[in-house]
Each structure stands twice: as structure tokens, then as C-alpha cells.
Amino acid sequence: MVTAREWIDRLGLEPHVEGGYFRRTFQADHRERVPTPNGERYTMTSIQYLLTAWSPIGHWHLNRSDILHFHHHGDPITYHLLHPDGRYETAVLGQDPARGQLLVLAVPGGVWKASHLTGGDHGLISEAVAPGFDYADMTLGRAGDLLRRFPGHEELIHRYCRPEPDQD
């Protein structure tokens, strides 16, 4: 079995700001860029993304673009989704449909998302993003903002928010 360290080395993955490791694998250079309210974007981009036993959380973040997540290898990853209307949803991305795991998960733009490795050494996925990913289109979750927006989900918000630096 390939380990998390081997995947990082073989795929050339780097630490991701939201947690885990990633590498961009595709951007639609061969197509005209598409206009969005925040500027022109590729029609689609793709990454490989890895959560590990030592970096098991994809912290709360919001993307403006729609994202398809595909499970490839390793252990299941649980996704927590907070919709703009306050609805909470969870899904498990993994290789065992008999246990309710999904091979593919679609997350619409505008939905807050956090994820965690459900156990084991690693979970390897890829993501296809349309319009293509740009850091200007991603918002990292801050506990205070999310708590105001989604009252009633305090424990979940605190569990998956990236710790904020101490204010001195």
C-alpha cells in the first residue's frame, strides 16, 4: 500500500492553506477565459488533494466556483457542508458504496465546506473546479463570522476552523 509520504513525493504535493497537501494538475489554457464578477477565470482547473494522519483536516472555506471531488485512494474523507440557507449536510467520499460512501461529490459554489480524514494514513482525491480556481474566489472560514452566519453549529464550526493567531 502506498503511504501518504509516498504520495506527497510521487505527486509533488505541497502544503495547502486550508490543510492537507495539493498540486494543480490542469488548467484550461487551450480555451478562452470566462468572465466572472471577480475577473476572468479558466473554464476549469483541477488539483490532486491529500489529507493525512498528521494533517487530517480541510478547514472551513467557501469557494465561489462549483467543485467535483473524486476519491482515488486510501481512507474515506467526511465532508461537512453549510449551505447559504443554514442547512447542514454531510457526505463521505470513499471506495465503499455499500457503506454509503460516494466516489464523486459535487459541492456548489457558495457552500461552506470542511473535511476530515475519517481514520487511517491518508485519503487521496482530485477536484475539478469550474469556473477555474483562483485564490481570490476562496474565503477561509473565521469562527466569529461563521458563528454569526450559522448559529446552532458552534461545535462543528470550532472543530474545523483553522486556529486564528494570537492577538498581541
From TrEMBL:
Q: Where is the DUF985 domain?
A: 6-140
Regions that span the bilayer = none
- Cite the CDD domains for this sequence: cupin_YML079wp (cd06121)
- This protein is called Cupin domain-containing protein
Q: Which organism is this entry from?
A: Kitasatospora camelliae
**Out of the domains of life, which is the source?**
Bacteria
One short Pfam name that applies is Cupin_5
